[in-house]
Amino acid sequence: MQQQITGAFYGIAIGDALGVPVEFKTRSYLSENPITTLTGYGCWNQPPGTFSDDSSLTFCTAESLIAGYNLQNMAQSFVRWSSEGYWGAHNEVFDIGHTTRRALLRVGSGTSPLVSGGFEEFENGNGSLMRMMPLALFLTSENDIHIRYQIVREVSCITHQHFRSVLGCFIYVEFLRALLSLKDLREAYLQMQRGVNAYLGTQPFNPTEIKLYERVLQQNIAAVPEQQIISSGYVVYTLESALWCLLNTPDYPTCVLTAVNLGGDTDTTGAVAGAAAGLHYGYDQLPAQWISQVVKSAEIGNLAKRFMAAINTTSPQ
Fold first, then answer.
1. In which residues is Mg(2+) bound (predicted)?
2. Mean pLDDT for each 10-residue chunk of the chain (317 residues)?
3. 290 domain residue, yes or no
């Protein structure tokens, strides 16, 4: 499990950092100028190996979970990131989504993290999906799917309260949990589909919202042609893109480079795909050069080690 957890922590940071310089570039531009390794500057004028808010908030989530599940503590760690650059690649914030920014301002002014997140339909970006990986690992030993759903919902609600965002996070968490125990990607995907669909069938959720995830939950997202995969910042599309990349590639480097070269929200697609791919393939299958080049490499390794030790001794309350 240490291989998988460490792989996931480096996997998200590397996937994120690969995408940072080319965020907002089109797929056609990247097909002619593909990303093949860690580069720098570009869109955000950051040096090579710089990860964005995707990884920073993921590491804040992990740091908080080390002490056990405490939503208030987790939300405050996000505020610390936005105000002080806590877990920022260079201890500063250069990229924050509108919904996340508004939500963290609410938390900072005393709003409960249970109701601080955006709840309008237009506030369904990928800002809570991108930070779910540590929660999936933390919930490994929680066998009650309803408790898992409720915790995922609460953690998403810090920034994104809408059911659409919560459901995307839940699907991703259930898939990552499956990856921890199943070596076969296809079998892990099918297990997620079976488990999530069975659970949704017992709940009074809006069927119109559930249908938005039909390509992931009812069909085989891997079989969708690339031109029908949209790599924008919308939560449904980010989840689709990340799963599509993982299920259609043979190794970690190909997965994250494919994700980034889809264009659009390159850092988050790279991060969400990279966390899953790092978890699946394990630390040893990640390029050593990328591991050493990513900013805060030693700190990321240390966090993964501390997180692993913590989840072996604590379980969800």
1. 52-54, 265, 267-268
2. 96 98 97 97 94 98 98 98 97 93 97 96 97 98 97 98 98 98 97 98 97 98 98 98 98 98 98 98 98 98 97 62
3. yes
Q: Domain range holding 306?
A: 2-32+51-311
Domain membership flag for residue 44: no
Amino acid at 20: V
The 10s digit of each residue's pLDDT in 220-253 is: 999 999 999 999 999 999 999 999 999 999 999 9
Q: How many domains are there within the chain?
A: 1
CA distance 113 to 107: 6
Write out the binding residues: 52-54, 265, 267-268
Say how far apart CA 127 and CA 159 lie, in whole Å.
7
Beta carbons of 135 and 155 less than 8 angstroms apart? yes
Residues 6 or more apart whose Cβ sits within 8 Å of residue 114: 71, 154, 157
pLDDT at 315: 46
Which domain CATH number covers 283?
A: 1.10.4080.10
Q: Rounded to an integer, what distance in angstroms lies between the CA atom of residue 305 and that of residue 177?
A: 19
What's CA 134's distance to the chain center, in Å?
Answer: 9
As annotated, the binding site for Mg(2+) includes 52-54, 265, 267-268
Q: Show Cβ contacts of residue 47 under 8 Å, excluding neighbours closer than 6 positions.
A: 40, 41, 295
With beta carbons less than 8 A apart as the criterion, state whether 251 and 10 touch: no
Residue matched to tokens 């459901």: 167
Q: Report if residue 45 sits inside a domain.
A: no
Gap between the Cα atoms of 194 and 238, Å rounded: 21
